[in-house]
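Honest question from a wet-lab person: if I give you the sequences of every part of a complex, can you actually get the arrangement of the whole thing, not just the pieces? Trying it with mine:
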Amino acid sequence: MMNTIEIIHLRRHFTVGGETVRALDDVSFSIAQGEFVSIMGTSGSGKSTLLNLLGCLDTPTSGSYRLDGEDVQQMNDNQLASIRNRKIGFVFQSYNLLPRTTALENVELPLFYNRHISPRERTQRAKEALRLVGLESRMQHTSAQLSGGQQQRVAIARALVNDPVLILADEATGNLDTRTSYEIMELFQKLHAQGKTIAFVTHEPDIAAFTTRMIRLRDGRIVEDTPNTPVSATQMLQSL
Amino acid sequence: MIIIDTLRLALRALLRNRMRTFLTMLGIIIGISSVIIMMSLGSSLTAVMNDTFSSMGTNSISVSGKWEREGGNWRMLHEMDMGDLAALREGCNRASVITPVVVTTMPLVFGNNSHSGRIEGGGEEHLKINNMAVERGCMFDSCDVLSYAKVCVIGRTVAEKLFADGEDPIGQTIRCGEVPVMVTGVLEHREKKFGYDFDDLVVMPYTTVMKRLTGNEYFDDITITCPSTADIEYTAAEIEQLMRYTHGLAPDDPIDVSINVQSETMEQLGDILSIVILVLSIIAGISLLVGGIGIMNIMYVTVTERTREIGLRKAIGARQRNIMLQFLTESVVLSLTGGLLGIVVGLGIYALAAAIIEQLPFTLNVGAILISFAVCTAVGLFFGWYPARRAANLDPIQALRYE
Ligand SMILES: Nc1ncnc2c1ncn2[C@@H]1O[C@H](COP(=O)(O)OP(=O)(O)O)[C@@H](O)[C@H]1O
Ligand SMILES: [Mg+2]
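Yes, you can. This is the full assembly:
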């Protein structure tokens, strides 16, 4: 099977006040299509830095990154924007939905920046994505009218709507209580079962337990990379 | 992103903060309404002026007695008389028509109807040099002037007041005060100008007015018409010399008559008009500048407020130019909406002014409206450029982290 992500000797250094911060230092790994990977580590270990690179929001200091067979490190801003638009779905800790905008419009948003998708198709696909996350009855609600868990579902629908090769989540359950977190993880497991490739940043071991592979970072380096037999979120919910 | 979507987005963002949007637009509204008022006023006043002066005859000079303030009273230094008329007729080489004018008001009676009418006494050329004409009947001739003939031509309003519907005034004899006068013609209708009603008028030989109606031996003024504008200056100088000589004035004595050259009056009015336009232009310029700065300011605020939104849009695939376009559209829509309101307000004020001031015609100045739209677009683009560029250049990672 083809690797969705291949990174080799990836480095990301920041210079702060004359000193070099090695946020990522010589990281190499691959993620195969269909994997559900958690990226773990303490605060400041470089998880977000890695995720920003994987999401093409940032460019590495050195090393190479292939996403879905395309070499990313040579691309300019416009090409990166286009890659993000077509190949990546982001889920953030704080949802980042537009205020006073309906769930449907929020989900449509990525498709606005794809010239090849007509307004009709846009709405159709957004509705489908909302159905997939179980919010078909809340399409016309604005973010203020939705609970935290529902808002995160809208955000997941937004990440799905462009049918990306990779879903990236940064502490996506960080703002949610345990039950809601498990519900969100249940949704991620469902997406994984449908074949989605997911990289999920978290510092909570019980959340990482739902994934099929755990990568642990410390001071910008990989210290652990092990396969995992995932716990079923559905079962965990029943036992709550 | 399709332009319609961008427009919808801009409208929504602007409607979200209605009060703020409106206040931001105020500068543009004031600026554009000034532009509209200024340009409309400019074009219609120029039209009125040209029209009026061509009807008065730009090639004419009017000579009248000069008033002087003496203590608390006004005193006339000299009254125009037959001697002046004779001197001018004798001495003005390049003049084509020299005719005195006397004006009075008299009760006019026909049958049971009466009307208080303005009576103008002039020579047989009176209608021609004032750009008037008879519609029916005929004007009196030089014989009538010489013989104090009791004839007149009347304006439409006078005809309506004195005669019943369908009754023909021509050939009828009306009474001016105690004097019976025969109507020989009815004047063509003309629009009022500067409060002067060309329809409410009786025109008679000046000799008749002076000898039979008023008994006055002085003229109100003497009008000298030249064949072309080129002769005006020469003739005006000639008139001054003739008057000085006739009235026995020394070269350094102040002149005792006023010599009014119409084209000078036109120039003076033109000067006043250009001052008015200059003041309005300054107001327009300043308020457009202030309005533009207001737009720039509010766009910076908007960009800062929506930093996370911008970060998100970039994360999900918006290019720099998409973001740039989004915010530029917003500033242009803001300033164009302000401009639209400014056009409405400006036209409203101008229409109101035209309704109140009778002499001011309302003309829709399409050029002014087009220029306003162009100016607003330019203001929106110019003052929206830097805020939009700041938005477009935001780093998505930093922007998403922004609190
Ligand atoms: N833009 C930046 N400029 C300077 N230092 C940064 C920047 N981004 C991250 N870092 C540093 O890199 C290290 C890793 O940060 P980060 O990836 O955010 O960690 P995590 O997400 O695991 O908490 C930290 O020491 C952080 O201070
Ligand atoms: Mg982090």
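Two things worth pointing out. Residues 2-52+267-401 of chain B form one domain. The radius of gyration of chain B is 33 Å.
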